[in-house]
Amino acid sequence: MEALAIPWFVLVRHLGPPLFLLVVGGTLLLWRPPRRRGLAWTALGTNLLAAALPFLWIAVQRAAGAGDLTVIGLAMTLLQPGLVVLAWLVLLWALVDPRSHERRPRGAAPDRVGDRVTENVG
Hints:
- There is one protein chain.
- The protein is mainly α.
- Helix content is 65%, strand content 0%.
- The chain has helices at 8-31, 37-64, 70-96.
- The longest helix has 28 residues, at 37-64.
- The radius of gyration is 21 Å and the shape is elongated.
């Protein structure tokens, strides 16, 4: 990180929470997988990518010598929070997608106790 002129504590401060979320979220996905586990893994990876995006951008700037292009820097500043929001929306969609619930047969009564599926959410 010294080559990019970024102190290590800044890198840890920015990448630590998404890495922690990836580890804890990945553990939960392995323990209690939702029906759309691919979307959940994608959301966790996108969140980590969004956290690493500013550092990747600095590395690209240093490698290409394009450090004076402020328009691209502004676009990257807006892209990073947008990716975080997208990651959380994908995770929310993966966990509460209404199409992922089991469908009842056409003739089944909607309020029968036998049709309800108990699920441990705690």
